[in-house]
């Protein structure tokens, strides 16, 4: 009897300890977001006078007003949405077509293509950065939207992911379509795509997120302030105006908001998407 | 026909530049297109290029620390969250949030948090009586700070992968062990860990590759400084290629990076394959 109580006492301590450790982990994970919000809502003087506190001593919306005038924030927000949005839509389309072809059609050189896709999957994207820039210079695409978007219009991860998904779908459905005399394009569009929407959504979300958040690529392709996306624009603004804390944090909050909102809406799907990637 | 559009994009913007990179690395091109053939000179130059060797060392230190730390933390969190914990969903989402946010933007917040003048974290550490030096600008702390932010960002992502792996372990095995009287640590060590090895392999490979590609937080927080103390290979590629316009050297470094990443992937695959568990 006595031993039993001691044991449950130890269990209790373990549970409290675990909860405390998890609370610390959550606090560290959220700290920059909380600080960002706080710093964006207080004047610079208040922050410098009292850096220890996370709660503003004086509250103000000024930073949120000023950011639109200090940098072309609206323009850069539009650039980010246009870049990430069109890449997501275009690459989902192209990736799913290619993935479908690799999963379903027997053609000469299929193995070669598949091996090439897997090799590209492992290749660090930075390797091609310098020569890719050369291609963009030759095309006259530096500082253009097509320069940002077109090179990202297909990616090895999306193709591979879609191939794996289509492989797992039963063939009976397409065969039924073929018997009915439907064209391959029609079978793909009317039969396969509607079945593939969970995979399409996963690939699309990953693409949207990656490109919305990307720093290196927009940094290389764009040199004009008006063509930058927000991650690049804010990072460069930080380099020039190191001490405009509130302003930068107001810009950061606004830049993060769309993706964080999207994450909360689709988090279940998103996390499941990652789980399936892990199992490939 | 279905393959053509994606094929053209990849051919033009991935494969062609890749081959081009191999060729450029053998020339002394200042901007792409020109350049005379110099053979392996760019690669030989790297051998006594202090900035390259420093960046290589930083990158290796970064990888050797962040990979095991983030994998271990992620595994611990996943195991903790795989049982009935209050607010489990909230904790999981909170841990995952850093991965969803743009690293270049959250890194701005971190660089302020670790700033010697306005940094909240620095002011807290000072209140505890710790020597914080010059904050992020201190040569001693620059690399540890960017490593910390790298771990901070990726842990939630790896955690989600581990949770998925844990949920694929049949419950019966665990229950049988409980009946047999195995303690929690013993269960983790002899059941969970071996059965999770496929996931662990995948996560470790990804974590290692991530760490060799790290760029954003160095660019934003330290610019590779002070005194190149936190410069990594990707930082150096960017700086050589797009600030010094030394394309030959930049592409040569790129290929060194490819070789390292490929080698690590293969080594890790080989290592884990020997220990792979099927059930």
Fold topology:
The complex is a heterodimer of chains A (280) and B (279).
Chain A: H1 2-40, H2 44-49, H3 62-70, H4 73-104, H5 110-122, H6 129-139, H7 145-149, H8 156-168, H9 172-179, H10 184-195, H11 197-213, H12 216-221, H13 230-240, H14 245-278
Chain B: H1 4-24, H2 41-47, H3 50-81, H4 88-100, H5 103-113, H6 120-127, H7 142-167, H8 171-179, H9 184-195, H10 197-212, H11 216-221, H12 233-242, H13 247-274
Percent of residues in beta strands of chain A = under 5%
Gyration radius of chain A, in Å: 25 Å
Main sheet record of chain A: none
Quaternary structure state of the chains depicted: heterodimer
Name given to the CATH homologous superfamily of the largest domain in chain A: MetI-like
- CATH top-level class of the largest domain in chain A: Mainly Alpha
Helicity of chain A, as a percent range: over 70%
Please give the radius of gyration of chain B in angstroms. Answer: 22 Å
**Series of H and E elements of chain B:** HHHHHHHHHHHHH
How many domains make up the coordinates of chain A?
Answer: 2
Instruction: Give the full name of the CATH homologous superfamily of chain B.
Output: MetI-like
Structural class of chain B: mainly alpha
| Reported CATH architecture of chain B | Orthogonal Bundle
Number of DSSP-assigned strands of chain A: 0
- Which residues of chain B form runs of ≥5 with pLDDT under 50? none
Estimated structural class of chain A: mainly alpha
- The chain-level mean pLDDT of chain B equals 84
């Amino acid at each position: 009897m006595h031993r039993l109580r001691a044991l449950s006492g130890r269990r209790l301590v373990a549970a409290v300890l675990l909860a405390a450790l998890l609370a610390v982990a959550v606090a560290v994970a959220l700290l920059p977001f909380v600080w960002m919000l706080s710093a964006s809502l207080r004047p610079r003087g208040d922050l410098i006078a009292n850096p220890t506190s996370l709660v503003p001593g004086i509250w103000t919306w000024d930073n949120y007003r000023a950011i639109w005038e200090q940098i072309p924030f609206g323009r850069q927000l539009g650039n980010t949405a246009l870049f990430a949005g069109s890449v997501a839509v275009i690459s989902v389309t192209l990736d799913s077509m290619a993935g479908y072809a690799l999963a379903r059609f027997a053609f000469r050189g299929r193995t070669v293509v598949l091996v090439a896709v897997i090799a590209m999957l492992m290749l660090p994207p930075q390797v091609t950065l310098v020569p890719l820039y050369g291609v963009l210079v030759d095309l006259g695409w530096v500082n253009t939207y097509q320069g940002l978007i077109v090179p990202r219009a297909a990616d090895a991860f999306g193709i591979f992911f879609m191939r794996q998904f289509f492989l797992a779908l039963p063939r009976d459905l397409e065969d039924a379509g073929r018997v009915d005399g439907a064209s391959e394009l029609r079978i793909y569009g009317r039969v396969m795509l509607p079945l593939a929407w969970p995979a399409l959504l996963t690939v699309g979300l990953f693409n949207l997120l990656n490109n919305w958040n990307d720093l290196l690529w927009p940094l290389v392709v764009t040199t004009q302030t008006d063509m930058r996306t927000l991650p690049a624009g804010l990072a460069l603004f930080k380099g020039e105006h190191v001490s405009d804390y509130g302003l930068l944090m107001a810009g950061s909050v606004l830049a993060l908001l769309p993706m964080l909102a999207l994450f909360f809406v689709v988090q279940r799907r998103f996390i499941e998407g990652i789980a399936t990637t892990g199992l490939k | 026909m279905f393959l053509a559009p994606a094929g053209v994009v990849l051919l033009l913007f991935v494969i062609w530049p890749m081959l081009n990179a191999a060729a450029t690395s053998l020339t002394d091109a200042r901007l792409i297109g020109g350049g005379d053939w110099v053979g392996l000179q760019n690669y030989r130059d790297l051998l006594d290029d202090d900035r390259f060797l420093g960046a290589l060392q930083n990158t290796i230190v970064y990888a050797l620390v962040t990979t095991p730390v983030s994998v271990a933390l992620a595994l611990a969190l996943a195991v903790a969250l795989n049982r009935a914990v209050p607010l489990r969903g909230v904790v999981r989402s909170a841990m995952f949030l850093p991965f969803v946010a743009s690293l270049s933007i959250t890194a701005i917040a971190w660089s302020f948090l670790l700033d010697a003048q306005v940094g909240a974290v620095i002011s807290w550490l000072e209140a505890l009586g710790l020597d914080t030096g010059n904050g992020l600008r201190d040569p001693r702390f620059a690399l540890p700070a960017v490593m910390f932010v790298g771990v901070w960002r990726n842990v939630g992502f790896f955690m989600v992968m581990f949770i998925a792996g844990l949920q694929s372990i049949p419950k019966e095995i665990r229950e049988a062990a409980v009946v047999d009287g195995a303690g929690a640590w013993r269960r983790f060590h002899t059941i969970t860990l071996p059965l999770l090895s496929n996931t662990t392999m995948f996560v470790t490979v990804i974590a290692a590759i991530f760490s060799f590609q790290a760029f954003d937080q160095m660019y934003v927080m330290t610019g590779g400084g002070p005194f190149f103390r936190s410069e990594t290979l990707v930082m150096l590629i960017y700086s050589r290629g797009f600030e010094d316009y030394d394309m030959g050297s930049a592409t040569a470094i790129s290929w060194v990076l490819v070789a390292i990443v490929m080698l690590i992937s293969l080594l890790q695959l080989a290592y884990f394959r020997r220990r792979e568990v099927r059930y």
